[in-house]
Every structure is written in C-alpha cells, then in structure tokens.
Amino acid sequence: MYEDFASKLAATMWADFDETPARDGPTAEITDLSTTVVDGNFPWTIVTVETDAGPTGIGEAYPSPGVHEIITDYLRPVLVGENPLDVERLYHLMRESLSGRGSQQGVGTIAISGVEIALWDVAGKLLDQPVYQLLGGKMREDVAVYADCHAGEAMVASAAAGQATETYRPEAYAEAARLAVDDGFDAVKFDLDVPSGRDLNRKSRHFDPPEIDHKREIVAAVTEEVGDDAEVAVDLHWNFSPETAERLCHAIEPYDLAWVEDPLPPENTDAMRELKRRVDVTLLTGENRYGRHGFRDLVEEQAVDFLAPDVPKTGGIAETKKIADLAEAYYQALVPHNIGSPVATMATVHVGATVPNFVALEYHARDVPWWEDLVVGDPLIQDGRIAVPDAPGLGIELDWDVVAEHEKGS
Ligand code: MG
Fold this sequence. Notes:
Layout: H1 2-13, E1 30-39, E2 43-51, E3 57-61, H2 67-79, H3 87-97, H4 107-127, H5 131-134, E4 142-149, H6 153-160, H7 164-167, H8 170-182, E5 187-191, H9 209-226, E6 231-235, H10 242-252, E7 259-261, H11 269-278, E8 283-285, H12 291-300, E9 306-307, H13 311-314, H14 317-328, E10 333-334, H15 342-354, E11 361-363, E12 381-382, E13 385-387, H16 400-405
Parallel strand pairs: 4-5, 4-11, 5-6, 6-7, 7-8, 8-9, 9-10
Antiparallel strand pairs: 1-2, 2-3, 4-13, 12-13
Helix pairs in contact: 2-3, 2-4, 3-4, 8-9, 9-10, 12-14, 14-15
C-alpha cells in the first residue's frame, strides 16, 4: 500500500532529491532497512541499513509507536538502490517522501533520524573514517557525560505504594548523587517535579510555598552532599506554571545549579523567554523540538541558555550539528538529551566532538546493568566521559547476542 503511494508521489515531490549525482568515487547501494527493539528502560529502537558493499549501518530512533512501519513500509522503498554515501541528499529525500505526513516533526522525523544515523555509520565504514571526521573533524578527545539520577527502583516502587514523603526525602537524593559522583560523573541531574507526600491537585501547575520549599530542600541536600565534586542540574518536566516556576527558580538561585530544565510546558517560547528575563538560573529546553526550524525561535529570541536536542528524534546527526551551529551564533550551548542505547549515545558523541559549544550529553541508563554489554569491547563510559572513537562510522560494534537476549520485537 505504502509502496504504491510512494511511487505516485515520486514523479512530483521528489524531483529535486531523487536524482543521483554522477560520481567517480566510491559507491554502494542500499539493499534493506530494518528495526529491532531492545527492552531497556525505554524501548530502544535500533535501525539497520544494509548495503551491497558489505558494511551494515546501525542507527537508533527515539522510542515511538509507528517507527517500524514508517521505516520498513515507507522509507525502505524510497532508499533501496540509493547510494548511502549521499547522506545529506537522502535526508532531504526522506523528508520529501514524508512531506505533509510527519517530515517536520513527530514520528516521521523520528524514523528519519534513526535512518540518518545509520547512513552516517555506513558512510564512515565505506570511507574507513569515523563519523566525526566526515563532519569536519573533532575538537576534543572525549565528551563529558552527565548522569540522570533517580534514587533507584526502590524509590519508584515505594512512591507507587503511597510512601512519597519518605521516598522523596532530600536525603535519598543526596545518597543517589553521591553514588553517581563516586562512579566518576562530574555532573548529575535530578527530577524535581516529584511528589512531596502532600495531597495536591497538580493540574494547574501552581504550587504553594511548602511545596516549593520541598523542592528547595532537595536541591540543598544534593548540592551540600556533592559540593565541588560535581555540578547539579534539575529537570522539571514542563510541570510548573510561569508564576510557580519563577518562585521555584528564585528559591533555588542560591545553589548555583548547572541548569534548570523544562520549567514550563514546551510549546510557548515567549513564556520561556519572559521567565529567563525574570530569574537568575541557567535555563535549558529542547528535547521536544524538531530540527533547526524547531529550534530557531528558541535561539533567535535567546529564550534559554542551553539547548537539548535529542539526536534520534530531532533529525539525526547532521541536523543536530546544524542546531548547534545556529546556537553558536547566539553563544548558546548544546546539552543533548539522550535516553537511548549506546547507539544513540555514540551518535551524540560524534556531534559533541565536532562543535565548540558542547557541554555534556545525558546518560539515562544507570538502572540498566547490561547497557555497556550491548557493545563489544571496553565500557564506553569511564570516569564520566566517553572517548571519541577513531574506528570507522560510529565506532562501535553491537553485540547482537546481547541485543537478542533483550529484544522485544521490531
Ligand atoms: Mg528532560
């Protein structure tokens, strides 16, 4: 059904991008696209691009329903037979092929992102170069990783049992922070939109002074525990109204946090810009934005300090680099969102290696003991950093036996 639809569109909508430029250099043909879902703390969707020249590329799409169908039923017929070295042209071809059906944001862009990452991996392997080299070369030997921390499964379980006051006590946060710092991370992040144990109606996003003070006490406990050993950030997950976010930010200003993430619902850039004008904290947002067009107003209006594009969601490796370059013109920094497997993480490492305004990328899988086992070789994260790999492509090889062990469909 999709193939028929695609062929009907081909004559009109792909006129600019379906024409393969002549070349004398290396070439190959894409022969297949597929997906495999790994049952991590999120359903990590691994994308593979096979070629007739030998190398298979691996990418990752942000966990989202419909990714498999879009990639295998729709993007596969578009890309089979194309040269995987034409990454930029194929990115635009994929966008054109989904024009009006998610090429600008949402699951269509997510599917494209996963394929784009795999194309870079193939291109690097075909040219025997790491992805960072194809992007212009690296400007750092390793990239900083920050640890997204909760207080462990016990915290979540007891919260579900209605013991929120005990579970979300500030001391539990401090203990979790110390564990992450002892593991070598020099930046940690906590969710601050958490229950205090009081029975509140949170739909209005308004919180009273005792609730604000509960959040302040968490920040105080964590920053006192880690001291100068690590920077501390907090994530508010869009759960505060502007007036409450302002009061909360003022309450935690003295603790000099690395950043405050997503204090407001994500849609309204004007509201974020106004909050930034009123408070003295470093603001971050962007994990729900797609592509350079989705970030443009955040950058041009200087509505935040840090941007958090998610590589497997926002358009892939090159698109994220373009967002970083756009932000650089306004002296904003890149702090990429990442809840993925080692594939998404390494795709983000290559972006972080090649732009000046990179701070740190997220690591969200401290609760998944086999995260490192998905990759052949030494652990990727050592002392809170990932070395920028010099092997071709993304520079990692998946252990497909471990993938199979944790696979849950496609
Ligand atoms: Mg977040």
